[in-house]
Amino acid sequence: xxxxxxxxxxxxxxxxxxxxLVALAALILVGLGSYITAFLGxxxxxxxxxxxxxxLVHRRRWNKQxxxxxLLTFAFVVIILPFTALTLMLVSRIRLYAQDTSQIxxxxxxxxxxxGYAITTEQNVRGLVQQSVSWLSQRIPSLxxxxxxxTVIIGLMLFTLYFMYTQEQGFLRGLRRYLPFRPNTLHExxxxxxxxxxxxxxxxxxxxxxxxLLTAITLQLFGVPDAIFWxxxxxxxxxxxxxxxxxxxxxxxxxKLSQGHTGQGVGILLIGVIxxxxxxxxxxxxxxxxxxxxxxxxxxxxxxxxVEIFGILGLVLGPLLLSYFIVLxxxxxxxxxxxxxxxxxxxxx
Length: 349
Description:
The chain is an all-alpha fold. The chain has 2 domains: 34-178, no CATH class; 180-337. Helix content is 81%, strand content 0%. It has helices spanning 10-31, 36-59, 64-99, 102-115, 122-139, 147-166, 168-178, 183-221, 227-237, 246-258, 262-286, 296-310, 314-347. Helix 3 (64-99) runs antiparallel to helix 6.
């Protein structure tokens, strides 16, 4: 008669249970891979809007569902729609430049005439521009990638945000219960998330907006074509520390100088160096107590990492990943130190 006793030891059952959980979690992540930005975006919006939710619901005792509906409407109208419009404008104009490289070639020919050096051929320029457009199209979410996909991402983001607020207590209780961290570690991770979102969403978005407006006004003032478009480009570029907006107004000044408009070129350079670059430092000083303190190296490396993985949302998610990695390293170091002290204390007669 065959035995009905389980062939696994309790420890083997425990290990196999963990392996099954990891395998199922990996399958879920693979299945949701193209929509993972919706959940990450919902988490970011949750942190950004939570102070308002707490003030209205927990302090003033307003209706939770009504406040949540108002916050969702605000997020969609004030944050999601403008950001989508900017990305759509960016994609459409980049594709326009990709289809017609005559404007780019005209500028290059003038630079060649001034310097006496042949830079490249039109075929090489067209190939380079098309490769750049292909790379950007893969990393900028827009209606161009598919209306259904875009709608699902926005819908998932808003639905997730809705349940995070209406079931906030259960959501936070679940985090504390199922995340494999001590309470003080969870507190550190929460502070890191808040610090990073404040620095890279609230603070950096405000700084980028001011720099973009100044760049657009400067380029318009000195007769640079498509000044509004380049202002939009500078908004996204401003998220990159140090390089940022100089990648926009710097070439514009060079082009003006190569065309013989010395006054306009020098004017763009002066305003760019004296005003646009320094406004970043000034605003960071003014907002230092309200936004998180993130090292520029973490932001720069995080942007490179995040854009490659998450697309345009990587401007925020990349630095967040690096910040969490650094926090977990510190936690690991502290836990090892405590464990060594405990072992020494136990071994001390």
